[in-house]
User: Fold this.
Amino acid sequence: MHTHVRDFRSVAVLGLGLMGRGIAQVITQAGIPVVVLETGEHRLAAGVEAIAAFLAEGVRRGKVTPEQREATLGRFTGTTDVADLATADLVIEAVVERAEVKRELLAAVGGVVAADAVVATNTSALSVTDLAAAVPSPQRVAGLHFFNPAPLMPVVEVVAALQTDPAVTAALTAFVERIGKVAVPVRDRPGFLVNKLLMPYLNDVVDELDAGLASAEDIDIALRLGLGYRMGPLELLDLIGLDTHHHATTSAYRATLDPQFAPPPLLGQMVAAGYLGRKSGRGFRVGCPAADTEEVAAP
Assistant:
């Protein structure tokens, strides 16, 4: 495939959860219209409401003008029908991290959009090569891995699957730069680049906490101040979601059988107990007496 798409003008985002709405916001703030697909009208409304609230906070802080907020919200079109995505020349999937769900949706969308439309997945834990195999013309599929929160985090990994046409990677790299982010081209490996390095680090921290090396608060203080990070690792896990990290590191372990990706027992126990971090109100630091509740972006 030699895609003729170089300047994406019509973008579709699949899913308006935490990542999907952040990605959609970034694109619309760059002046590009976005069609967002969700499973129901209530989920569409909730996603757009969350984006509006995020932008309202930006206005309050002087980061966004009221005019920019209204213009951004005016670039959204919502739908619950895959057929409404037919004119998109770039599709970015950001639904739940379950391979069977992503495969089914990507196959459906790939059959609706034009043959030279590019299809991207925001997965952080699954094989892009495997997902691409479900899409008609898999050479047009790649990964676009944004980081949470997408409006604030500057880097996006552009992931080339085994099937990906180099022209697609080049087009996506240019698109990432166009929306004001920094593109880092990477290969399709478990965890890609950032998470491949981050997951073992976070796993080691949880193991050392479980072993009683230091308290959760002191581990975060030491690593935040000693290494110059904006957040300690346990604060970061609470922000990411303990279940999200557990899923990602389990996926990497199953793909590689590398023990550095094996999920720590304490992590599994926390997830089983429903202690998922900020999303549940209790985690390694959240909901604990010594927790630092300052809102900051991930490193």
